[in-house]
Amino acid sequence: MTRIDDVFVLRPSPGEDRQAVEAVVTEAFEQGAGLVLWRAPAGDWAARRTAWSLGFALAPGVHRTGSAGGAARDEWIGWLGRADAHEPRSRWLEPVVLDGERFRLRPWRQSDATRLVETASDPVFQRMMPHSPLPRATQDVPAYLQRVRLSEANGVRVAWCVADLETDVALGNVALFEFDTDEPDGTAQVGYWAHPEGRGHGVMAAAVDAVSTWSMGSQDGGGLGLRRLFLLTAQSNIASQRLAERAGFVRVGTERASAETADGGWEDNALYDRLRP
Ligand SMILES: CC(C)(COP(=O)(O)OP(=O)(O)OC[C@H]1O[C@@H](n2cnc3c(N)ncnc32)[C@H](O)[C@@H]1OP(=O)(O)O)[C@@H](O)C(=O)NCCC(=O)NCCS
């Protein structure tokens, strides 16, 4: 712990448990700290989880630090004020494992790298999702997966790999984002894509249906308790619209000129939603 004015800087040791970190934080405030600044190496998930559980506000991204002339470091940064509650500020989202008849919904992992890169290189994918952050090279996969996990830890997005139930090979992706949870029963947007070999079997529609049903389940039962889901798909994306309908979504409108096309133009988006029964 270092002190600068009334700011105490906390760098947890690797593997330090919650109790130990909380004791350091308590002592810092007893010694007059107004603010505890937390710094940990990017990728130390146990440390981030502890800081999150103690109520630290955590910066969403990675910060490149290191003193002048010294080696650069990638760090996560957070802060906790003297009067802040020692409880999480946001939900830590996790892609819980959900089994369907032919697929398993599970977290993405490094062993899916080839399938991610193949999808990113697919012309249909590139036409329909021109601004997707999907990695186009294998060496970019670890950083991509860390960003996916970080967005889940920050409560802003959660993504599932749709894997073949028998082979565990990745077939596609289903994600929830744009959460609006200010109201008691929140809403979210659904997004999806399939690896070229994952298309045409009806698996993706069943996977989107499964994620939708789970997310509308009660929080007590492990769901998210959402009341309404919506999705946007370019008017020209017929496969996606068919999928939406098969997954229980209803077309409710059009958002004019809101889908950016691969050539930099705009086309209409079809708006679909699905309500909790
Ligand atoms: C959208 C996507 C996930 C759909 O995957 P899928 O459900 O396996 O797709 P399918 O090939 O089974 O097509 C779905 C349906 O649309 C139909 N369809 C596909 N293209 C069509 C076309 N051009 N005209 C008419 N019908 C078409 C299929 O016949 C199928 O019909 P069915 O439901 O009666 O069987 C996949 O096409 C994809 O990954 N696209 C690129 C990424 C993307 O567009 N994501 C969605 C962004 S909103």
The domain count comes to 2
Question: CATH topology of the largest domain, anyone?
Answer: Aminopeptidase
In one word, what is the shape? globular
How big a fraction of the residues is strand? 25-35%
CATH class of the largest domain: Alpha Beta
The stretches of 5 or more residues where confidence is low (pLDDT under 50) are none
Tally of helical segments = 7
Total strands = 14
Q: What integer value in Å does the Rg equal?
A: 21 Å
Question: So, the CATH homologous superfamily of the largest domain?
Answer: Gcn5-related N-acetyltransferase (GNAT)
Give me the secondary-structure category: alpha+beta
Instruction: Report the biggest beta sheet as strand number plus sense, adding barrel if it closes.
Output: 8 strands, mixed
- CA distance, first residue to last residue: 52 Å
| Helix coverage percent | 25-40%
Secondary-structure element order, N to C: EEHEHEEEEEHHHEEEHEHEE
- Ligand types: coenzyme A
Question: What does this protein look like?
Answer:
There is one protein chain. The protein is of the alpha+beta class and 277 residues long. The chain is 26% helix and 32% strand. It has helices at residues 18-30, 45-53, 113-120, 123-128, 141-153, 203-216, 238-246; strands at 2-4, 7-10, 35-41, 57-58, 63-65, 73-81, 98-99, 103-106, 157-164, 170-180, 187-194, 228-234, 250-260, 266-275. It has an eight-stranded mixed beta sheet, with helices on both faces. Strands 1, 2, 3, 4, 5 and 6 form a six-stranded mixed beta sheet that branches. α6 (203-216) packs across α7 (238-246).
